[in-house]
Every structure is written in structure tokens, then in C-alpha cells.
Amino acid sequence: MLYYKKFEQQDLFNSKLNFRLALFFLFFSCVLYFSRTMIVTAIILYFSINGYAMITTRSIKILLSLIVSLVLFYTFLFSIKIERNKPGIDTLLYKIKIAPSEILKTKIDRDNHKDLWDHWRGYEAKQAFELMNSNPSSYVFGCGHGSLVNLKFFAPLSGPNTKGMKFISELHNGYPYVLYKTGIIGMLIYLGFLIRLYLYVYKTRTFSAILISSIALFYFFSTLTITGVYNFGDIVIFILGGAIAFSEKNHFNIISKPV
pTM, whole model, 2 decimals? Predict the structure, then answer.
């Protein structure tokens, strides 16, 4: 909404009041839903729209600067004591601090609830890989969309006053999820799809192409945390569909104009 006029040379809304109201409600919604994923998404969109999505010397320097900043930030986080259940900013900092191990750590004490819930994504992936190890061909073809992961205990995932769920179909970490369901073949197709979306930015310097490329970068990241494209509650996929339709329509109109 903020950058549309810069690229398209026209207003997105006919009324400035409607524009401000829409912007306010979207911003307010973002504040209420504030999360780690949203922070990274905002950073990706900001740098992409400002021309850093394409691989250039300048964008590589920016990326290296971000990596150094991230390393310094995590060095700071591990140098201070952050309480796990303290409300406010401490909760967010604690979640940011454990984010890498939350995804990657697989050696987890299931009887230690703090350890289990802090590294739930890693535990899910571990149980999926245990099932795949019993049938090595699944690494190539997957276990199928109907296959279930055995958690080996009844996890409180189905709401209060229930026994819980011992078998689950969906994982939070999307890369093990895609590999578990569809194997290496499905993983290559998924990555190929995201790469094709990312390459839109090299086709034309239009707002829709930049948005498509930005969403591809977002999915590369969000697949680690919220299953990316396969997140059932994801609304970004509808924005992606609209951006692709808009981009392809404009491209067709350009190439079909008589010389």
C-alpha cells in the first residue's frame, strides 16, 4: 500500500480517507499479531521493494551486514539472562533466542515439558525421520499425504477436556514436512517452484514482479517455521495469486500491442 504509487504512478484508493483507514487497520492488525515471522517478513519486503532482492554486489554486502548484525544480536542474547515466562518484551526475546534450536535440536527429553515445548518443531521432525528410516525408499518418494507421524505420547493439541493427539499429519517445519510427505522428488519440485517465483524480479522491474519475488523469499524462510505454502491459515498465497495474475496480464498486454 505504501509503495504502490511509487511504482504504478497512480493511487491505490480513490479516497485518501479509505486509504488511511485501510492502512491503520492493517497496521493495527500487524501489531496485535506481532511475531518473529512477521519481523522477518517485514525486513524481506522492505529490502526487496528497495531493490535488494536481485543478487548484486550491493545486495551481497547488505546480506553480509545483516548476518553480522544477527550474529552480534544473538551473542548479546546469550550473554544476558532472559526469563522464559516473563510477560512483555522478555517473552519475545526468549523466543528469538531459542529460535535456531527450536527448529534444529532433536535430542529432546520428552518428559521435560519445558525442553519439549521449546523445541517442538525439532521433536516433530525427529519423529517423522524415525518413520522414514524404517522405510528408506520414502526418502525418494515420500510417505504419502495420508501418512501420520507418531508422537509416542498424547500431546495436548486438540483442546481442553480431550485425551490429546498421538498421531499428527502436519509438521511446523515445512522442509521435513515436504520431504516426509513427498520425498526428495517433492522437495525438488517445491524448491523449483519457489526459485521460479523468485526469478520474477529478473523479468521486469514492476511492483507485481517485486512482490512475487519477495513472497518467494518469504516462503523460503516461513517454510522453516510455519510450513510455508502448506500453512492452512496462510493468506499470503492469495496475495501471490493476485500478483501473478496481475503480472502476467500486464506482460501479455505489452507483448501483444501492435508495433
Answer: 0.83
